[in-house]
């Protein structure tokens, strides 16, 4: 995945996009990303393609303290996630 800066574009640190805190499991990140993509798709705002997921991925274990059902990620970050998921599936 490559991001190309245009001549008039500036990249700046955006503090609000960085969350400091405790460890978040890969499974929680995976579930919250899928749910965030689903919400964007429902609103017709998802710029990516559909990511095929098996239903077991979305079996959220609320007893473990999962809080990511309402986490919304920025679409460009989710596009990077989509590329990661496709890469992992191609290596499986």
Write up what this structure looks like.
The protein is mainly alpha-helical and 92 residues long. It has helices at 26-42, 75-91. It is globular and about 45 Å long. The two termini are 19 Å apart. The model has no long low-confidence stretch (mean pLDDT 76).
Topology (elements, then pairings):
Layout: H1 26-42, H2 75-91
Distance between the termini: 19 Å
Rg, Å, rounded = 15 Å
Mean pLDDT: 76
Main β-sheet: number of strands, strand sense, barrel status? none
The SSE string, one letter per element, is HH
What is the strand tally? 0
- SSE-based structural type: mainly alpha
In short:
With 92 residues, this protein is mainly α.
Task: Describe this protein with a few key phrases.
mainly alpha, 2 helices, 92 residues
């Amino acid at each position: 995945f490559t991001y190309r800066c245009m001549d008039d574009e500036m990249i700046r640190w955006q503090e609000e996009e960085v969350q400091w805190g405790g460890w978040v499991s890969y499974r929680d990140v995976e579930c919250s990303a899928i749910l965030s993509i689903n919400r964007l798709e429902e609103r017709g705002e998802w710029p990516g393609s559909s990511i095929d997921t098996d239903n077991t991925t979305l079996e959220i274990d609320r007893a473990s303290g999962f809080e990511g059902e309402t986490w919304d990620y920025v679409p460009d970050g989710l596009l990077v996630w989509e590329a990661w998921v496709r890469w992992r599936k191609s290596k499986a």
